[in-house]
Amino acid sequence: MAEQQVQPLHNEKHANTKVQNGINVDFLKSQHLMPVVAHEFARVATEFPMAFVKNTETGQFQAVAMFGLEPGENLFIENGKWTAGFAPLAATRYPFGLVKHPEEDQFGIVIDEASSLVGEEQGNALFKDGEETDYLKARKEALVNFIEFSRVTEAFTQYLADKELLVQQTLTVDIKGEKKDINGIYLVDERKLNELSDEAHLELRKRGYLAPIFAFLTSTHQVARLARLKAQRQADA
């Protein structure tokens, strides 16, 4: 995999730079988990199972989409192509990123110059006569939204953790008659959710948390899809 060359975006340096739409397949092919934000849970649930993973150092939980059943495995990349009908926002941000300036609450935009999506021949221009193009403005807005969505998702996840609605579970999948356990993930505890008081339910509704919770619960049925994809891949091999 090519090394990244992440550089601050500059209207002179990148005056002729163009960016093609697409995702970083090189990076994604070895990712079995990808962070997702609550705003996209409903869409994610139509393609991927979701889970929460716990950072052992901070104790914080993060919502993720599962692309594979074990580390380093992405079942949605075949022959160098992304095969799912949707990619989470964390994947579509590339080749751009935001970096926070240490002294102030400001973000700067960076670009991976080594990306195959970046060049001077094909794609969407970033600058015209030194000014940002509409394309770049839209990409910037999406990056800023992602930061905001991530903050909201952190608060949502923390709330679930505080209410003890996240429970560590082992998912068992059947791959061509062989049982495989997936450990170290947390799911929403449906039993505890159903036992919440009317008051607690109302609180969830007021915060807008019910929709992402139900989307999350629905998504776990997609684990069977991962098992099918894995069985297919093993058969092809």
Automatic annotation (TrEMBL):
InterPro entries: SapC. Pfam families: SapC (PF07277). This is Multidrug transporter.
